[in-house]
From TrEMBL:
Entry's family note: Belongs to the universal ribosomal protein uS17 family.
Protein name: Nucleic acid-binding protein
Segments of this protein annotated with the region Disordered: 83-102
Gene3D superfamilies: Nucleic acid-binding proteins
One of the GO biological process terms: translation
Amino acid sequence: MPPMSFIGQVSKVGFMDKTATVTVSRFIFHSKTGKRLERSKKYLTHDESNQLRMQDTVLIRNCPPISARKRFTLEKVIKSPEREREALHARQAAEAAAGATA
């Protein structure tokens, strides 16, 4: 199988150990109407450290089969809304603490 990598969004996580479902969307043009259509496909992805959360944007890459349906592994997390939200709350708490002492 040639090397493939996709950027997708985590749609299901936590039901199977070290596994997440990543939805990869692509756009095609209808041959007769010329309208743009969205097509999506779900891939089971190996997540060795169980670090993925819902709605994370990730880069996945194909690998030798890990199980019957799992053929992709996590390459890197591109964007994580949950981690960004936690960082924002920590920053606001630090600013509030600094403002209270000043």
